[in-house]
């Protein structure tokens, strides 16, 4: 019992995947929102890092390792080591970015991976979503990503998505704002609080094996 309590209270590990189409050398609204999510999670004892998917060679496919040059296995190791996955994406033509879709496609391989108890390997992990865009589509992108993440085994906390949509057909991005809108800040705070709580619940009471 004591060891279970200690495990539940131990620091949580987070990995945030930035699916901006911009390389790491460019400013990114997605990165700004992910920075804010990570900061909010840190307030609840959850810390980690970001991976800019545009800077990683994630080969197309639905296997855990697609062979020569595929850098997904390194990203996968970080996901498997984390309690919480944060998937961040911009909106392009009303949808999540192509890199976000590629992440979901690569995660599909985990459906055939199981742990020592025979359970899907992504069980007991939490996933949340962060979306930015200056056009409509945040709700649809969030719904699509939630479905894919849940399909492969992640658990989604209550209000586990945060987003900002600017006025359609305008040039203002999230990173251009003078300050974070209160509605976004409060939503991000709720996401972080619920994600950390759920991750600790799943640590203390894992999903049952078959």
Automatic annotation (TrEMBL):
<dbReference type="InterPro" id="IPR029039">
    <property type="entry name" value="Flavoprotein-like_sf"/>
</dbReference>
<dbReference type="GO" id="GO:0016491">
    <property type="term" value="F:oxidoreductase activity"/>
</dbReference>
<protein>
    <submittedName>
        <fullName>Flavodoxin</fullName>
    </submittedName>
</protein>
<feature type="domain" description="NADPH-dependent FMN reductase-like">
    <location>
        <begin position="13"/>
        <end position="157"/>
    </location>
</feature>
<dbReference type="InterPro" id="IPR005025">
    <property type="entry name" value="FMN_Rdtase-like_dom"/>
</dbReference>
<dbReference type="Pfam" id="PF03358">
    <property type="entry name" value="FMN_red"/>
</dbReference>
